[in-house]
């Protein structure tokens, strides 16, 4: 610039740093502002822009120091901190920040949470799996008249789904005055992750009667529902309808779900048919699903199980599968008494320095 930047200039360029996740540029602009006498509190708009940039760049230590030094905070300041904590593996801290916001006078209207704040903390609740906290936030949203907002309603559906309450997820969906495509996709995914395949498929019919055209995300949720309960034929029908009726090209994740559904149902004979339809070459995820399913059914001694070429590609090291695939194959072999083969899979896993991340559950 051939003119000295002012506060408005910096407040305009800082969101670009946040969008690019460019922490270095954000720090440089913050340093420029400080050298120009921009101490915390000198300009709330710039402070919030810097805070938002730090939060979105995952520099939570810098964000918290700036936040604590601000003599005055508005709803944007609090929301930036809640958003950053919720998406930086600190969901419990995000909920704590929201409670602090309420204690700081949020109920009095000075810095009352808005829909963006509620959506951010609902994301944190979905990560923690705390149903009680989700219900409390739902009650708060109802009292503040925010539950009817589409973005809040969609976040409530997602939070209830992640907390394992499919009934309340559907209730939050049903109470939305206006439902967009995200609402339909979120509630369909809620049914899928909770093993309610029939309800997910019924939602598709209801969606079509309402004149809403499904997109790739909705079909992915339907395929995921079929995968969870091993409905291979329904998964193949959904995949075919997606491509032939609605003109949506299935992505890698859609084919992977269909393959997984066939594997869980023992329909290994359908693998080649699905793979032939795929526009892309085999990749790690797709081949991993194929090999894991083939290994499991071969280990059980199911007659007529094909996939030998895929199995050989895995043994030859052509498929660079993740640790979970190795663990699944080793367990499948061990379950049917093939201990030597199971040990061989584990040895191959050790030789290639592949580690299996330990699973965890909120229950």
Quick recap of the structure?
The protein has 363 residues and is mainly α. The protein has 20 helices and no strands.
Description:
This protein has 363 residues and is mainly alpha-helical. The chain folds into four domains: 1-72, no CATH class; 83-178, no CATH class; 182-280, no CATH class; 283-356, no CATH class. Helices cover 69% and strands 0% of the residues. The protein has 20 helices and no strands. Helix 10 (166-174) packs antiparallel against helix 11. It is globular, with a radius of gyration of 25 Å. Residues 302-308 have low confidence and may be disordered.
Uncertain segments: 302-308
* Share of residues in helices: 55-70%
User: What is the average per-residue confidence, as pLDDT, rounded to a whole number?
Assistant: 83
Please state the CA-atom Rg, rounded to the nearest Å: 25 Å
Apparent shape: globular
Give the percentage of residues in beta strands: under 5%
Number of helical regions: 20
Measure the end-to-end span: 56 Å
Main beta sheet strand tally, sense and closure: none
Helix and strand content put the structural class at: mainly alpha
Oligomer state equals single chain
Secondary structure elements and their pairing?
Blueprint: H1 7-20, H2 23-35, H3 44-56, H4 60-69, H5 75-86, H6 91-103, H7 115-128, H8 131-144, H9 150-162, H10 166-174, H11 181-193, H12 197-209, H13 216-229, H14 232-244, H15 252-265, H16 271-277, H17 284-299, H18 308-315, H19 323-335, H20 339-351
Helix pairs in contact: 1-2, 1-3, 3-4, 3-5, 4-5, 5-6, 5-7, 6-7, 7-8, 7-9, 8-9, 9-10, 9-11, 10-11, 11-12, 11-13, 12-13, 13-14, 13-15, 14-15, 15-17, 17-18, 17-19, 19-20
């Amino acid at each position: 610039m051939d003119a000295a930047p002012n506060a408005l200039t910096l407040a305009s360029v800082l969101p670009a740093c946040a969008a690019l996740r460019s922490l270095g540029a954000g720090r440089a602009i913050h340093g420029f502002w400080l050298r120009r006498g921009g101490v915390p509190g000198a300009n709330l708009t710039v402070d919030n822009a810097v805070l938002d940039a730090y939060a979105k760049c995952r520099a939570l230590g810098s964000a918290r120091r700036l936040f604590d030094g601000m003599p005055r905070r508005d709803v944007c300041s609090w929301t930036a901190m809640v958003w950053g904590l919720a998406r930086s593996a600190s969901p419990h801290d995000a909920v704590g920040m929201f409670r602090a916001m309420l204690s700081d006078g949020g109920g009095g209207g000075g810095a009352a949470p808005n829909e963006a704040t509620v959506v951010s903390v609902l994301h944190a609740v979905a990560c923690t799996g705390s149903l009680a906290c989700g219900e409390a936030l739902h009650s708060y949203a109802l009292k503040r008249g925010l539950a009817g907002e589409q973005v809040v309603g969609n976040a409530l559906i997602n939070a209830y789904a992640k907390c394992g309450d499919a009934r309340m997820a559907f209730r939050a969906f049903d109470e939305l005055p206006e439902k967009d495509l995200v609402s339909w996709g979120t509630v369909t995914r809620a049914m899928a992750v909770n093993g309610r395949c029939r309800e997910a498929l019924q939602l598709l019919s209801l969606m079509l009667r309402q004149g809403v055209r499904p997109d790739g995300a909705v079909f992915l949720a339907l395929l995921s529902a079929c995968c969870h309960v091993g409905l291979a034929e329904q998964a193949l029908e959904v995949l075919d309808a997606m491509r032939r009726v609605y003109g949506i090209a299935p992505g890698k994740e859609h084919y992977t779900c269909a393959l997984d559904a066939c594997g869980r149902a023992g329909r290994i004979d359908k693998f080649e048919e699905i793979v032939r339809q795929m526009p892309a070459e085999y990749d790690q995820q797709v081949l991993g699903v194929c090999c894991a399913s083939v290994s499991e059914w071969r280990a059980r001694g199911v007659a007529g199980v094909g996939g030998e070429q895929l199995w050989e590609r895995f043994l030859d090291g052509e498929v660079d599968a993740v640790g979970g695939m190795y663990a699944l194959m080793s367990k499948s072999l061990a379950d049917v008494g093939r201990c030597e083969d199971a040990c061989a899979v584990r040895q191959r896993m050790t030789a290639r320095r592949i580690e299996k991340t330990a699973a965890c559950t909120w229950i």
